[in-house]
Specification:
The complex is a heterodimer. By secondary structure, chain A is α/β, with parallel strands linked by helices. Chain A has helices at about 20-30, 35-45, 50-65, 80-90, 145, 150-160, 185-195, 210-215, 220-230, 245-250, 275-285, 290-295, 300-315, 320-330, 335-360, 365-380, 385-400, and strands at about 135-140, 175, 180, 200-205, 230-235, 255-260, 265-270, 405.
């Protein structure tokens, strides 16, 4: 609109010989300032901290809004004058009300927390005594591993990766209004199994505007955050991957969203950019509904992880009795599949260590073997293996030779 | 463009012919002014009518000093402000007409290949939404400053607001906008 003709009380450029420094900040984005203007702006900047802050962010705002003035090319409708002329001589009446705006539809989040914690199972541990002559039948320790010609198999079994739920102890998928993404598929699946939840995979490039926007907006929506609690969220940043891996993900799209079952099957894929409402629909997809309903609350998952880690710590410190008891307690509490597997592996490992202790003792002279067995028996006190060790030790003492070992029929069913 | 200006002294005795001339010369400017403020074409069209009707009905109240453009713009501003107040009374201004916005926003379809999506259109829609969703009256001040090209003093005069307040509003809008668009700032080349 032209301001060429000034008049009092109306906007007019001629009214202000001294433009505000704020105007100069804008003008600097549109044209080169004159030396006088530059000096004026500089001295104003030196004197005013608020102005400095404005001057720091305005160029970005100016540039970003360069093409968003939808009005710049708008013209009055061709029939505008006709409409106006028709009303010019009508009696004055209030203007027609504006179109009422449709209120934002709020989606209610339907969150079902299953209280599926039934009666705890009775865990029975059966062991029967072996008859000690110079041959000893061991009910608990895996005799085959002890008797094997070399220790390869035992060592292989002992070097299996140990499930570590350190991270899960204080993990929550949502914290401070943000999804707490894990950054590895393997860790994600391990946690999904431990938490008995589906995994939500989010694949993105850091330079993809839709990905960034989903991350900054859609993935912070309240309903989305509430639903995210039902998943283990994993984010893969494609930029960081090896080229051949990127290609594999790239063809699946980006931003990539997939729901995985804890066992690692993709049960629902929905690559693309979504508004919160349709994103919620995908997140709430039926393919994982059953699993999400039956998943234990996070608090319980964390407490199971805590228990597992306590058992693991005891095991690492050589307090096998305490570790064994902790793993057993955990198993009795009907843990999730992932945690149960880890706890059973823990019990198994302790048995392997007992077998290793026997092999070790057998390789020593009698005195050392006696001492080694006594020490091992103490470490394993509270486990069924302590009894096996005691049997061997007694036989060793009685016969002054290392007994031949065999498996007792009623070897504990682990 | 070169039509003789209607000087202030003419206005009181504005003929239908002269009024039409004024409408044809200034109608689109006033429409753009209202469009920037309302963000809605049909509202802007309605307010354009209302603005010119007010000028027509009050043509004998104009004191005849200065250019009629200034008076026209002030009338447009008041018309907009009244309509805004009315609408706010009816329902809390939801800032956006979601449906219309969704159509305009050129969101990429979920199943479209990345190559087919228009990143520029997407970004522009995001930035436009960021401007549209600024809180009033900071948004109004920013729009008048950035798009209407008014100086802070002109905005102060138009909206009967102290100059310092206008500057604070423009600065606040700028800050909010920069914050809102920060995710894109470092990663995506903006248009």
């Amino acid at each position: 609109m032209s301001d060429a003709h000034p008049h009092p009380g109306a906007p007019s450029s001629r009214q202000e010989p001294n433009p505000s420094a704020y105007d100069l900040v804008r003008e600097a984005q549109r044209r080169s300032l004159s030396p006088a203007e530059s000096r004026a702006l500089e001295s104003a900047l030196a004197a005013d901290a608020e102005l400095r802050e404005f001057a720091a962010s305005y160029p970005f705002a100016h540039r970003a809004t360069q093409f968003v003035d939808s009005a710049s090319a708008a013209l009055a409708r061709p029939d505008a004058w006709t409409r106006l002329a028709a009303q010019m001589h009508e009696p004055h009446e209030p203007a027609a009300p504006l179109t009422p705006r449709r209120p934002l539809a709020l989606r209610a989040a339907a969150l079902l927390l299953a209280s599926a914690l039934g009666a705890s199972a009775w865990f029975a541990w059966r062991a029967s005594s072996g008859d000690a002559a110079d041959a000893v039948a061991l009910p608990s320790i895996d005799v085959a591993l002890v008797n094997a010609a070399d220790s390869t198999e035992l060592e292989r079994a002992l070097s299996q990766p140990v499930a570590d739920f350190q991270r899960l102890r204080d993990y929550a998928p949502v914290r401070d209004g943000e999804i707490q993404w894990l950054d590895s598929l393997d860790e994600g699946l391990a946690l999904a199994q431990a938490a008995d939840r589906p995994m939500l995979l989010f694949g993105m490039y850091t330079t993809c505007p839709w990905c960034i926007e989903m991350q900054a907006q859609g993935l912070r929506d309240e309903t989305v955050l509430a639903l995210a609690e039902e998943f283990v969220p994993v984010r893969i940043v494609y930029d960081d991957l090896a080229p051949e891996v990127v290609a594999k993900f790239h063809e699946r799209g980006y931003p990539l969203f997939e729901l995985w079952s804890p066992s690692g099957e993709i049960v629902h894929a929905f690559p693309g950019h979504f508004d919160a409402a349709s994103f919620v629909e995908h997140l709430d997809h039926v393919s994982t509904a059953e699993r999400r309903r039956s998943a234990p609350p996070w608090e319980r998952v964390r407490s199971m992880a805590e228990q597992h880690q306590a058992a693991l710590a005891a095991e690492r410190e050589g307090r096998f009795g305490a570790a064994y008891a902790e793993f057993q307690t955990l198993l009795r509490e009907q843990p999730t599949d992932g945690i149960a597997r880890a706890a059973r592996a823990g019990l198994e490992r302790i048995g392997l260590r007992a077998a290793a202790a026997l092999r070790e003792a057998r390789s020593l002279d009698l005195d050392s073997a006696q001492r080694a067995l006594a020490s091992a028996q103490a470490s394993f006190e509270g486990t069924p293996f302590a009894r096996d060790l005691a049997l061997v030790r007694a036989s060793l003492e009685m016969h002054q030779s290392f007994p031949t070992l065999s498996a007792a029929d009623a070897r504990a069913d682990r | 463009m070169n039509a003789p200006r209607i000087s202030a002294s003419h206005v009181a005795g504005l003929s239908t012919h002269q009024f039409r001339e004024l409408f044809e010369r200034e109608g689109s400017n006033v429409l753009r002014f209202l469009l920037r403020l309302t963000r809605n074409r049909s509202d802007a069209d309605d307010l354009l009518q209302e603005t010119f009707l007010t000028v027509w009905r009050k043509r004998d109240q104009f004191e005849g000093r200065g250019a009629i453009e200034g008076w026209l713009k002030r009338t447009a501003w008041r018309t907009y402000l009244n309509a805004r107040t009315l609408r706010e009374r009816r329902s809390r201004l939801a800032a956006l007409d979601d449906e219309q916005r969704a159509q305009e926003a050129a969101e990429p379809p979920a199943d479209a290949g990345i190559e087919q999506r228009d990143a520029h259109a997407f970004l522009t829609a995001k930035i436009r939404a960021a401007v549209d969703e600024l809180p009033e009256p900071a948004r109004e001040a920013f729009v008048l400053f950035r798009f209407e090209g008014l100086t802070c003093a002109q905005i102060a005069s138009l909206t009967d607001t102290p100059l310092k307040t206008v500057e604070t509003r423009v600065a606040r809008a700028t800050k909010l906008l920069a914050e809102r668009l920060r995710p894109f700032r470092d990663n995506v080349p903006l248009p």
